[in-house]
Amino acid sequence: MKRSSSTSAPTRARRRATLVGAAAIATTIPLVLGGCATGSNPAASSVKSISVLDYYNQGNDKVVIGKTLKQCGKQIGVTINRNVVPGANLVQKVLQQASSRTLPDVLMLDNPDLQQIAASGALAPLKDYGISSKGYAKGVVSAGTYKGKLYGLAPTVNTIALMYNKKDLSDAGVQVPTTWAELKTAAAKLTSGSQYGLAFDANATYEGSWQFLPFMWSNGGDEKHLDTKGTQGALQLWTDMVKSGSVSKGALNWTQADVNDQFIAGKTAMMINGPWQIPALKASGIDYGIAKIPVPKAGDDSVAPLGGEVWTVPQTGDSAKQKVAAKVVKCLNSAKNQLSMAKQRYTIPSRTAVAKRFGQQVPSEQVFVDMVATARARTGELGAKWPAAATKIYTAIQSALTGQSSPADALKDAANS
Question: pTM of the full predicted structure?
């Protein structure tokens, strides 16, 4: 889902109340925007500055994105006035800005949020500015598209995979698992003393849903119909591993950052996590490996969720500034900047050709390159209705893993809620 790390999150999980409030505000926005559509004259004086809003407010992300934005501003000939906010506050702030006609010139959104904001009428189609999605991974295009129109593009993206401690597996005589049966067997063999075989994030936020999606999708599960055998089988797998003790019950409360901490501390031999954890893994000195998330049976496709943030051009009513804002979005998505940011941020370029070059230059992350190529957008099936489905998924996970309901009953309840 969204990018998650010790300083930020691929699921920067916002509270349900925030989404409900944001949705209520969104219903009023199209009328408000309609009143400011005429804006400034395109022939207005030369644009000198552009405002940007994003949620990269900490650590390496803040520095790298800031540096790249500054370079783009210099290249285009404008000053970049950047405002950063916590991820949990971004959507609410954007909807309020749209209502008060104070939208920024360039807006970054977590890719699952694009549908909601585009539906409000707050974004301009990128085609209007000659920006094409040609050459981008299918999932990237899907994540940036609403009702057939492209509204956002992500310079770099991410997903999740199976990470494992090579020494732990070698000492236990365990091969890297590729199927669910192998995963259950490996996790059981690797569980000893204070160490669990596998760790994942099953908390009651979008992160928990995001981590579950590869298992659900690879088994034919469908977010439109949660109480199917495919999704039941995936939730049964998770439930079985927690019940057997191969996965700690702490997973019910862990974030992805917590999962990584468990791995680094030697409390788990394998984990489900993403490339944003690599800096901490390198610093720990652990000899780790990366593999695709195991599939139900040999020959099945491992389907991963697409994480990452898209950059958009809001409908501010100032056509001159919107044209310049589009140049900023295009600059961020240049092949050079995609490759540079991917290397610095441990993400994957969204253009397939650039991703291929990245894999050649950073072979240790080739698994993520391969998975991103076929990764699925969370909003691909449900669009703006995805947040409601994500909430139902993590609610069912919590119910099943705590033993309150069987996986089948938990999903049936979720589907009917």
Answer: 0.88
